[in-house]
């Protein structure tokens, strides 16, 4: 008796009767024969409601659980079906695994924790599973932990963004809480209909409590926000504006480089090509070598250097806050309009068009760092999630990593 309780602890299972533990020579694995404890039998695998038995299903089956030392381990049990009056004929629930899983809860929670805290290679190698399989585990874990937490409660200031997650223009719409820095909602698609689904989930009352929404300059976001939470101030995310400036600067650099090449100045062209990162990085992060490159740019190409200063000064606008920042923005606009660099004249026009949203950002003191850091992490996750078949797996990984849904490792508080 005591022996079986030790095994239950070792396997990390609850409400489960251990019938026998042995070593399967063929599978080279430890196999524990188990059954659900009394009150746990005959329940619907989806909703957990007590339901009359239907049949034996496909007979006995195995669930992979955490390794013991160097060998793999499985739980083995009957998997009968029941008739749920809401879900019809379904495989009965088992206390050690989630519905539809070939792995135990302990195994899936471990996979989720590892996916959030280590690399994809480490997870797949350590657990001896395909990365795609991990994707399905993450979906189940996030769905379960997410069902117990209302992530949309208490939202006041949110950021809405779109993230490209695959080639061929597949996007997710994501919503971030500015006050906690957490990802609170994500769904495939990037259009008004998708965003309306977020406001549906939030509900009318809580939509009415939003005071501020930040976003890029997309019309579909502005339209949905105006329709569903007209009281909220719409701000333009600072890092989007700074990215416009970085893009404009890159355009100028490319034009200058092409001109140098065409006019037979290969040395200058090479120099400009090498200066790309120096121009692109924030000056406080430049290495000595990059500082040198920047000085060379200032020396040999005034036009490009002016574009660089324009980009930097716009970044400075968003580092300041309040009326000082607004005054600097005005000064920047009049400089950019007269600068005779087409890319920046165009940028000045775009910024003038979105003046109200930018001014709101400056006056409401919206922190750039928080949203940008969530955004950067999300982009990193989209790369890690490459190989998952469905956007749901990516959303699950994002929710686990950035939405506070990651479960603790099994057996720990
Ligand atoms: Zn059911």
Description:
- There is one protein chain.
- This protein is α/β, with parallel strands linked by helices.
- The chain is 51% helix and 19% strand.
- It contains 16 helices and 12 strands.
- The protein has helices at residues 2-11, 105-117, 120-127, 131-147, 192-207, 219-228, 238-262, 266-274, 276-280, 288-300, 302-319, 322-337, 342-353, 355-363, 368-384, 391-402; strands at 16-24, 29-36, 53-55, 60-68, 71-78, 81-84, 88-91, 157-166, 170-177, 183-188, 212-215, 233-236.
- A 5-stranded mixed beta sheet has the order 10-9-8-11-12, with helices on both faces.
- The longest helix has 25 residues, at 238-262.
- It is elongated.
- The two termini are 26 Å apart.
- Zinc ion binds next to loops.
Strand % is: 15-25%
In terms of quaternary structure, the protein is single chain
Question: How is the largest sheet built, in terms of strand order?
Answer: 10-9-8-11-12
Mean pLDDT value: 90
Shape: elongated
Question: What's the helix count?
Answer: 16
Low-confidence stretches: none
Order of helices and strands: HEEEEEEEHHHEEEHEHEHHHHHHHHHH
The tally of strands reads 12
Helix content: 40-55%
**CA(first)-CA(last) distance:** 26 Å
Radius of gyration: 28 Å
Name the ligand types: zinc ion
In terms of structural class, how would the helical and strand content be classed?
alpha/beta
Looking at this protein, list some descriptive labels.
alpha/beta, single chain, 5-stranded mixed β-sheet, 413 residues, 4-stranded mixed β-sheet, elongated, binds zinc ion, 16 helices
């Amino acid at each position: 008796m005591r022996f079986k309780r030790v095994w239950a602890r070792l396997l990390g299972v609850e409400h489960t009767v251990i019938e026998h533990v042995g070593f399967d020579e063929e599978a080279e694995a430890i196999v524990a024969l188990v059954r659900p404890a009394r009150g746990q039998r005959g329940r619907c695998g989806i909703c957990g409601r007590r339901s009359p038995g239907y049949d034996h299903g496909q007979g006995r089956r195995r669930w992979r659980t955490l390794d013991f030392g160097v060998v793999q381990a499985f739980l083995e049990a009957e998997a009968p079906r029941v008739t749920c009056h809401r879900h019809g004929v379904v495989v009965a629930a088992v206390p050690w695994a989630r519905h539809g899983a070939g792995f135990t809860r302990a195994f899936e929670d471990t996979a989720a924790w590892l996916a959030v805290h280590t690399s994809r290679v480490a997870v797949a190698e350590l657990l001896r599973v395909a990365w795609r399989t991990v994707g399905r585990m993450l979906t189940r874990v996030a769905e379960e932990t997410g069902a117990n937490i209302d992530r949309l409660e208490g939202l006041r200031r949110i950021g809405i963004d779109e993230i490209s997650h695959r080639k061929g223009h597949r996007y997710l719409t994501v919503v971030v809480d500015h006050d906690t820095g957490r990802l609170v909602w994500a769904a495939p698609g990037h259009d008004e209909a998708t965003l309306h689904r977020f406001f549906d989930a939030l509900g009318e009352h809580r939509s009415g409590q939003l005071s501020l929404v930040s976003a890029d300059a997309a019309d579909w976001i502005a339209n949905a926000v105006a329709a569903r939470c007209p009281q909220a101030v719409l701000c333009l995310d600072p890092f989007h504006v700074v990215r416009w400036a970085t893009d404009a600067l890159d355009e100028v650099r490319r034009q200058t480089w092409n001109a140098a090449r065409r006019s037979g100045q290969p040395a200058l062209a090479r120099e400009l090509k090498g200066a790309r990162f120096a121009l692109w990085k924030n000056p406080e992060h430049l290495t000595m070598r990059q500082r040198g490159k920047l000085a060379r740019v200032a020396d040999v190409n005034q036009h490009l250097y002016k574009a660089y200063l324009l980009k930097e000064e716009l970044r400075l606008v968003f580092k300041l806050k309040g009326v000082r920042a607004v005054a600097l923005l005005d000064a920047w606009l009049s400089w950019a309009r007269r600068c005779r660099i087409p890319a920046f004249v165009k940028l000045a026009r775009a910024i003038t068009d979105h003046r109200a949203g930018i001014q709101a950002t400056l006056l409401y003191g919206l922190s750039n760092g928080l949203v940008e850091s969530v955004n950067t992490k999300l982009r990193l996750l989209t790369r890690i999630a490459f190989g998952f078949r469905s956007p749901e797996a990516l959303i699950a990984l994002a929710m686990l990593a950035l939405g506070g849904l990651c479960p603790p490792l099994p057996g720990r508080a």
